[in-house]
Every structure is written in structure tokens, then in C-alpha cells.
Design a protein that fits this description.
Order of helices and strands of chain B: HHHHHHHHH
Radius of gyration of chain A: 33 Å
Number of strands of chain A: 12
Oligomer: heterodimer
Largest interface: A-B, 31 and 40 residues
Structural class of chain A: alpha+beta
Largest sheet of chain A: 5 strands, antiparallel
Strand content of chain B: under 5%
Order of helices and strands of chain A: HHHHHHHHHHEHEEEEEEEEEEE
Shape of chain B: globular
Number of helices of chain B: 9
């Protein structure tokens, strides 16, 4: 049967020839395809090189200059020891509610930023976070060594932080990002997200490659190209948000709505940050402009560490501005942040729950103003806020 | 010998055989020639990886079979089949039996081979037409030797059946 098959095929397929013209064409095509690979390879290598170069350029962008806002930083050592003293007062009062409320009313953000910017022992800044954490939690009562000098505290801070970390676990301290991170999604993926994305990308690239090499189904090819493009765009597209990463940007974004509202000729040359505070994952800024105008702006911390995102701003002249705040302590029901300008007549603020009659008080407001946190234990019922001057006279009811 | 010379030599020695082999599958001389060209281009491109462990003939036939299989799976081929079927139904009044009846015995045998399922056609054309050993067929198709033997035997049986049916229809 084998011979029969062979003979039959040779006879029937006699006319089947690989023509001379086809041989020449094959030779030409083979050599052309060979040449075509080279520019593709060159383009691919060059593209990779450019991408890598861009990545490194973005990465090595210089860290923005450190700017300290003189009004709040002042003397770091003096301010730190005042805060330390205040903590010891809370301890001495056996963590009584009144002292705890007073302690938590102010933020350590400015002081922490100054410690980091002026290259003091970084653990000192972390220690402040733990102190607020302990005061903010009813169950915790950590007593830290009393009667210490700033130098002794500096020496002991790393050990104290280590002890507190063992006791309460690590705490994320809120600061400006140490470097300006690139404004692209791909830089904020974790390793596994990048590996996963690359795997999916490679899979679709391979599908496209095999499609084009083999069957050439153009409908599938279009879908595959669309998926690949969407992946590239989603990974490399710039983020929509404008992130605040330093004081200059904080100042610019805080006053931008005011400037927009007032018109482009508004004089903002005198604008400067008077106070910065952080409560929870919020950053609050009080900016002083000329003619006693103050702008109070709020920012939300980005969970990926890219910086802060602008939320809102209000402005006024010589008046206390408020904003609802995230609660810092578990037992807090309603929390409000008060932005008090310098030389304000308001020296005491009370929050009263009209249903229960419960009152929480914020007193001894500083002459230079500040940003204060005040919380009420209940979240139900109307709240009345009263502002008093230094003689206890009611200035305003809200 | 450089790559260009190797390509020229391969085309000279095996060009016609490959066209005929591929024709068994695609049943169109133009397409068979195009696919042979594609096989030679792939051969040329892979010459730097070719380690001479297999003979040039085995290597070329393996490439040709792969190129043909790829084509048979492609949308392009399916489109051709559909349009051919459509044209055939429009054109002819003659029954396939009548057409086969008028053909020579050799033509009938070849047409029956062409009608076999691909996996049986693979072993049959490589073993009988290209005169490879069963071991070589197993290497070209990348299937175990026993599978090749089984397929050859089945292909022969199927061919026998088809021929018998053809004869009955002819009578």
C-alpha cells in the first residue's frame, strides 16, 4: 500500500513546483524580514533606555528646600520642654479628663516638623506622637521620667520610643513627605501589584504577538491592543490630585481659593503661614494675610504618602473659624477644630450638648492664636458653642 | 556555507516536495506555495539556532508541518473553506460521487488521503510520501513512537474503508 500511496501522490502532484520566481521572492523576503528586526530591536532598546532614564530623572529630583515657619517653630527646646511639662501635668492629675482635653487640644505637628528639619534626634518627634497616643486613650497611663533636661531627653528618646513601641506597637507620625514623589500611579504600587500588572501585561502582549504571528484575527488584535494601551495609560497617567508636599505648596493651595474669589489683583505678597496643626489624618493651616485677614484651610493626608490633598478653606478678619473634624480619641463623639487668629479676644470656648447639658471647655487660648481641637463625648443632639473673652464675658454664641 | 547559500540549497532540494506535502492539506497550489515560502523564511530565520542534530530535511518538514497546522487553525483558512463551500453549492449540479467516478484510481486515492483527518494525514504523508522512518515521523510531529504506529495503522484502515466505499459508489 505504501508504494501505491507514494506513486499516486507523485503522479497526481506532478505539477506541484516551488517556482523559480517564488524562490527569488522567498530569498528577498527572508532577507528583508531579517533587516526589519534590527530597527524594531533598536527601537525597543532605545525606548527602554529612555523610560529608565526618565524614571531615574524623576527619582533623583532634588528634595525641596526646607522652610521653617518662624512663628511656630521658635525655640524647639523650649517648646518641647513645655509640652513635656504638660504631659507630666496630665500624669500628675492621674489622667483626668480636663487635663487630657487640654493636652489634646493642640497639635505637635509644627514641633515635630521643626525637630526633623533642624536635625534634632528624630526619636524626640516620635516620642511626641506616643505621648498624644497615650493621652488620647483612656485605658493607657504611661508615666515617663520626670525632671529631665532637653539634653537628657534627647539621649533617652530612642530608648523610650523603643519601649513605647513594644508596649503599643508602631505609630505612624504625620509629616511632610521627605521627598517629592513622582505624580504617577505606577510609583505607588507595591511590589506584588507591579509584578501582577507586569504579568497581565506580558500575557496580553504575548497573546497579541501570537495572534499577529499566527492566525491574525484583527478583532482580537484590536481588543488586545486596547487592553494593553489601557494598562499603560492607567499605570503611567499622571494623578489628578495636586499633592501638597511642603510649606510653599501648602501656603499656595491654602490661599488660592481666596485669591480666586477676590480677583487676580488681590495682594497676597504678605501671606504667611501662622499655624499648622494635625489632628487624625487632617492637616489644618491658618494663613495670615495683610489687613488682619486670615485664611483657614484644611487638607487630608494621602494614604500612600504622596502628601496632602486640599479639602476646604474659609477666611475672615479677626474671627475664630471652625471646621468639623475627625475624632482623635475613641470616646469622642463630635469634634470641632477652631482656628483662632493672633490677638483674638476669644480666650475660652465651650461646647454644650443642649440635650444632655454636658459641657467641654477649651481655655487659656494663646495670645498668638492657634489651631485647637475640642471634642464632645456625644454625637447626638444640638451643640451650642460659646466664645468668651478673658473676663469670662460671652462674646458670641453659635 | 553561509545562510543565504543554505537557504538556496534547501529550496532547490526540498522546495517541490514541501509544496506537494502542504498541498495535501490545503488543496490549493497557490496557498501551498505561499506556505512553503513561509516555511523557508522561518527556516532562514532559525538557522542560527539550528544545531545540525536533526537533518535539514527533518527540520524543514517539521517547520512545514507547523506552518500548515497554523494555517489550518487560522481564520483566513476557515474563511476560504466557507466561501468555497458557498461557491460549490451555487455552481455545480454534479454529485461528488459522479465526479469521483470519472477520476483515475490514483486520483481517487490521493483525494481520499486529502480527506483524512489532519492527524492521520500527518503520519501517512510523512511516512509514505516523504519516506521518513516511524522514528523520524515521531520526532517531526513530537508525538510518541507508539502513537505514530497506531495512527499509521488506523489511517491505512480508514483509507481502505474510504476506497471500498468509493468503489461501491463508482459501481
Amino acid at each position: 500500500m505504501g508504494d501505491k500511496i507514494r506513486e499516486a501522490m507523485q503522479e497526481v502532484y506532478r505539477e506541484g513546483r516551488f517556482s523559480h520566481e517564488k524562490k527569488l521572492e522567498t530569498k528577498r523576503k527572508a532577507m528583508r524580514q531579517e533587516r526589519l528586526w534590527k530597527p524594531y530591536l533598536f527601537t525597543a532598546i532605545m525606548t527602554c533606555a529612555v523610560v529608565l532614564l526618565l524614571v531615574f530623572l524623576v527619582k533623583i529630583e532634588p528634595i525641596p528646600p526646607e522652610v521653617a515657619w518662624s512663628e511656630t517653630t521658635g525655640n524647639v527646646e523650649k517648646l518641647y520642654m513645655e509640652r513635656w511639662q504638660q504631659y507630666n501635668e496630665v500624669v500628675a492629675a492621674d489622667f483626668r479628663e480636663k487635663e487630657r482635653t487640654a493636652y489634646l487640644a493642640t497639635s505637635d505637628f509644627s514641633l515635630q516638623q521643626s525637630i526633623l528639619n533642624r536635625h534634632y534626634e528624630p526619636s524626640l518627634a516620635q516620642l511626641l506622637s506616643y505621648m498624644s497616643y497615650v493621652v488620647g486613650n483612656k485605658e493607657y497611663t504611661t508615666i515617663l521620667p520626670k525632671n529631665m533636661t532637653f539634653a537628657q531627653l534627647t539621649a533617652q528618646a530612642p530608648k523610650l520610643v523603643q519601649q513605647l513601641e513594644q508596649q503599643y506597637g508602631p505609630i505612624q507620625m504625620m509629616t511632610f513627605p521627605t521627598e517629592k514623589l513622582p505624580n504617577m500611579n505606577v510609583f505607588y504600587m507595591d511590589v506584588w501589584q507591579i509584578v501582577g500588572s507586569l504579568a497581565i501585561f506580558s500575557f496580553f502582549a504575548y497573546l497579541l504577538y501570537s495572534n499577529l504571528r499566527g492566525n491574525r484575527n484583527y478583532i482580537f488584535a484590536t481588543i488586545q491592543i486596547a487592553i494593553l494601551l489601557m494598562m499603560i495609560i492607567s499605570m503611567l497617567s499622571p494623578l489628578n490630585e495636586q499633592y501638597v508636599t511642603n510649606e510653599e505648596e501648602l501656603l499656595a493651595q491654602s490661599i488660592a481659593p481666596y485669591q480666586e474669589f477676590m480677583g487676580e489683583w488681590t495682594n497676597i505678597s504678605q501671606a504667611k503661614i501662622a499655624h499648622i496643626a494635625s489632628f487624625g489624618n487632617r492637616l489644618d493651616v491658618l494663613v495670615k494675610l495683610e489687613d488682619d485677614i486670615c485664611v483657614y484651610a484644611t487638607f487630608q493626608q494621602d494614604d500612600k504618602g504622596r502628601g496632602f490633598i486640599y479639602q476646604s478653606s474659609v477666611w475672615g478678619r479677626n474671627e475664630v473659624m471652625t471646621s468639623a473634624a475627625p475624632t482623635v480619641r475613641e470616646q469622642d463623639g463630635t469634634a470641632i477644630i477652631f482656628a483662632v487668629p493672633a490677638n483674638s479676644h476669644v480666650k475660652r470656648i465651650t461646647m454644650k450638648n443642649n440635650a444632655t447639658g454636658e459641657v467641654t471647655t477649651l481655655d487659656h487660648l494663646a495670645q498668638e492664636g492657634g489651631i485647637y481641637y475640642l471634642a464632645h463625648p456625644t454625637s447626638d443632639g444640638d451643640i451650642t458653642i460659646n466664645y468668651f473673652d478673658e473676663n469670662g464675658q460671652l462674646l458670641k454664641e453659635q | 556555507m553561509n545562510r543565504d547559500e543554505l537557504l538556496a540549497q534547501a529550496m532547490e532540494l526540498y522546495g517541490d516536495y514541501l509544496v506537494r506535502l502542504i498541498y495535501t492539506y490545503v488543496r490549493n497550489w497557490q496557498t501551498a506555495e505561499d506556505l512553503t515560502q513561509e516555511a523557508f523564511i522561518r527556516y532562514y530565520r532559525s538557522l542560527s539556532n539550528f544545531r545540525q542534530e536533526a537533518s535539514v530535511k527533518t527540520y524543514l518538514y517539521r517547520i512545514a508541518i507547523n506552518v500548515t497546522h497554523d494555517y489550518l487553525k487560522s481564520w483566513k483558512h476557515k474563511k476560504v473553506i466557507v466561501s468555497e463551500l458557498f461557491q460549490r453549492t451555487l455552481k455545480t449540479n454534479e454529485t461528488p460521487e459522479k465526479i469521483i467516478g470519472e477520476k483515475s484510481e490514483q486520483q481517487q486515492l490521493v483525494e481520499h488521503i486529502e480527506q483524512l483527518p489532519t492527524k492521520y494525514k500527518d503520519v501517512l504523508v510523512l511516512f509514505y510520501f516523504a519516506e521518513f522512518s516511524l522514528q523520524e515521523v515521531s520526532e517531526i510531529l513530537n508525538v510518541p513512537l507508539n502513537t505514530v504506529k497506531t495512527r499509521v495503522s488506523r489511517a491505512r484502515k480508514m483509507l481502505g474503508q474510504l476506497l471500498e466505499e468509493g468503489e461501491e459508489d463508482g459501481r
